[in-house]
Structure to design on (161 residues):
C-alpha cells in the first residue's frame, strides 16, 4: 500500500498526531496520547481495510514497550557491528515453550544462526544476513506454529528516533 496515502488517511484521525511511516516497511510512527494501544490497533486495522482493502494483522507498541524490547536484545554486540544482522520477530501469541525447546535443541543452526524467545518477541541473529538465512520468519512460523513479522535493529532504531 502506498505509504503517502496511508499517512494522509491517518493524519485525518483526530486522535492521531505526528504521523510518519518508514519507507515501504509497513511501520507507522504516531502519537495518540489519549488513546489505548488496543484502540489504536483497532483503528489502524479498520482504516487499512477500508481504504486499501487489506485485512492484515496490526501490532501496536508504545515507545516504552519498544525501548524495553530494544534493551532486551541478547545480540547487542552483533547488532552494534551491523544492525541488519539482528532482527526482532514480533508475534501476537508467545510460541509454545515445548516447541521452542525442541527447535532450540536442533542447534547449532546453519551459518551460526541463533534465536532467543522472550515474552512478547524473539530475536534472530543471522551472521550472513537475513536474505541468506535458513532460520528466518518462514522457518520459525512453520516450526513454532506462530505468525511472525520481523524487523531489523536499524528499523527499531528509526522507530525510536
Amino acid at each position: 500500500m502506498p505509504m503517502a496515502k496511508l499517512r494522509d488517511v491517518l493524519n485525518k484521525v483526530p486522535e492521531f498526531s505526528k504521523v510518519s511511516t518508514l519507507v515501504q516497511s509497513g511501520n507507522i510512527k504516531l502519537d495518540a496520547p489519549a488513546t489505548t494501544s488496543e484502540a489504536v490497533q483497532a483503528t489502524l486495522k479498520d482504516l487499512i481495510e477500508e481504504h486499501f482493502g487489506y485485512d492484515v494483522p496490526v501490532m501496536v507498541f508504545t515507545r516504552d514497550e519498544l525501548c524495553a524490547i530494544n534493551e532486551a536484545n541478547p545480540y547487542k554486540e552483533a547488532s552494534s557491528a551491523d544492525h541488519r544482522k539482528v532482527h526482532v520477530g514480533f508475534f501476537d501469541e508467545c510460541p509454545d515453550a515445548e516447541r521452542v525447546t525442541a527447535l532450540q535443541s536442533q542447534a547449532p543452526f546453519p551459518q551460526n544462526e541463533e534465536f532467543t524467545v522472550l515474552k512478547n518477541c524473539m530475536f534472530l541473529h543471522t551472521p550472513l544476513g537475513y536474505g541468506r538465512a535458513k532460520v528466518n520468519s518462514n522457518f520459525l512460523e512453520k516450526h513454532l506454529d506462530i505468525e511472525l513479522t520481523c524487523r531489523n535493529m536499524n528499523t527499531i532504531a528509526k522507530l525510536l528516533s
Summary: The CA atoms of residues 3 and 116 lie 31 Å apart.
